[in-house]
Amino acid sequence: MIPMSLNEVAAAMGAACETGWKEIRVHRVTTDSRDVKPGDLFLAIKGERFDAHDFIDDTVAKGAAACVCHGDWFKARGEACAVPCVSVPDTVNALGRLANHYRRRVIRVSAVVVGVTGTNGKTTTKGMIDHVLSGSFPGRAAPGSYNNQIGVPLTILSSELNDRYLIVEIGTNSPGEVDMLAEIASPNAAVITSISEAHLQGLGGIDGVAAEKVSLLRHVRPNGLCVVNTDRPEILPHLTGASRARLMTVGTNPTAKLCVANARGDIRHTTFVLDGRYRVELPMPGMHHATNAAAAFAIARWFGVAPEEIIERLRSFVPPGGRTRRLEMGGITVVDDTYNANPASLAAAVETLKRGAPGRRILVMGDMLELGPDSASYHRDAIRGVFDTDIEILVTVGPITGEAAAATDQHRRATRVVVCEDAAAASEVLASILKSGDTVWVKASRVMELDRVVKDLAVRLDQSAAVA
Are residues 447 and 334 in the same domain? Predict the structure, then answer.
């Protein structure tokens, strides 16, 4: 963060300033009381299961320069606090206002903000762009999945004085969230990785998903760049007049300006031809990542990076944990794809297993959540797709997937099905059936906690998981 006076911080939040605050400098903003360092501004958030105001005294002891609190807490305890307290009606809203100010008044013009959204591949594409650009420029990307009304402002506030780029990931669960976060980010460039059936409880259907994602483009600054995956035709009507910036379409459709062709892949790598002339190799499974890499290529070219350098950087990209990250442990190949799941991303995983994997192919499939009233139908269709590939073993986790497997059993030919109630049960099953040489793909919505299955495998095999 570029240091700011507490006076400027308070004014940006719409809060009253006190005498002497001008001399107090804020060097970082955090909402995590466990992570407070001297000079930080601690912003207390009241959640459904916790209230960070309870830890303000702890942050003061750790050296926090000031805190941001709700007005009610300030009236009750603010006067006794050992550091200045900025009192606001809503701390989450205040964080957004501060980030908005920081983006427009503090970040240098030379720092280019790239916003990334989409149903699938946001975090992976963000990582690809960061990996490619970091070879040529100083900059940073949102950590983990900082993609909501807390994570996006914190990402913006993390930008340093000499950064040339900042990559912001923008997610959504309900209509208007992308629009709100994009207004704060005010990106110079934007990427929409893909659209598919996800968060349907909030967004209503694929047309609602498309409208929500495309709202990012309305906030791209003039002379910027909008990179959009157009493989799903439902997005096309929403692109008309969506932005004054240049539009670059990517995808496997030959009409895309940056076309992905001849995609090949197995459990270890993915190759494809981009724009009819560039052969690109990714050291990760999943041919759907080819379009993510195409988006990263488009952004990097816009920055002026040479094609050959982009291709070389992509060849060494390692995906973040939980997103098709391949691990080798005890003679078994494990693909950690546990961060999220929807019908499209699950189908991509099944297709990769179908095309090539050593040993027996085992899919650990957990419930896919937030699919709305047709959730059961989506799960049944997904499992029929698994049965069509004759994957040797399907381990279901959760009630929705288990019921779908039972409902579609008449379509099963050779696949053995094992139904598990939760992640712990799945770990026990795997421990009893795994053999050296097997390939295990673990995938589900994050709340199913199937990352525990991957961790349990590493422990049971008595060695650390190592990226191949």
Answer: yes
Amino acid (1-letter code) at residue 418: V
Q: Are 1 and 43 in contact (CB under 8 A)?
A: no
pLDDT level of residue 465 (50, 70, 90 thresholds): very low
Query: 3-state SS of the chain?
Result: CCCEEHHHHHHHHCCCCCCCHHHCEECEEECCHHHCCCCEEEECCECCCCEHHHHHHHHHHCCCCEEEEEHHHHHHHHHHCCCCEEEECCHHHHHHHHHHHHHHHHCCCCCEEEEEECCCCHHHHHHHHHHHHCCCCCEEECCCCCCCCCHHHHHHHCCCCCCCEEEEECCCCCCCHHHHHHHHHCCCEEEECCCCCCCHHHHCCHHHHHHHHHHHHHHCCCCCEEEEECCCHHHHHHHCCCCCCEEEEEECCCCCCEEEEEEEECCCCEEEEECCCEEEEECCCCCCHHHHHHHHHHHHHHCCCCHHHHHHHHHCCCCCCCCCEEEEECCEEEEEECCCCCHHHHHHHHHHHHHCCCCCEEEEEECCCCCHHHHHHHHHHHHHHHHHHCCCEEEEECHHHHHHHHHCHHHCCCCEEEEECCHHHHHHHHHHHCCCCCEEEEECCHHHCCHHHHHHHHHHCCCCCEEC
Give the mean model confidence (pLDDT) for residues 204-221.
Answer: 92
CA distances to 92, 154, 158, 277 from 2, in Å: 21, 13, 8, 42
Give the tokens for residue 457.
Answer: 């495998």
**pLDDT at residue 468 greater than cutoff 60:** no
Whether residues 187 and 287 fall in one domain:
yes
pLDDT at 205 over 70: yes
CA 405 to CA 173: how far, in whole Å?
27
Same structural domain, 277 and 230: yes
For residue 88, the model assigns a pLDDT of 97
What pLDDT score does 18 carry? 85
The per-residue pLDDT of the chain, averaged, comes to 92
Tokens for 313, please give them: 């950087």
Domain range for 75:
4-88
The verdict on residue 68 lying in a domain is yes
Are residues 269 and 398 both part of a single domain? Answer: no
Per-residue pLDDT band at 199 (split at 50, 70, 90): low
Span 129-149, average pLDDT: 95
At position 231, the amino acid (one-letter code) is D
221 contacts 183 by C-beta, under 8 angstroms: no
The pLDDT, as a whole number, for residue 77 is 87
Question: What tens digit of pLDDT does each residue of 428-442 get?
Answer: 999 999 999 999 999
**How many Cβ atoms from other residues are within 10 Å of residue 304's Cβ?**
8
The reply to whether the predicted model has a pTM over 0.85 is yes
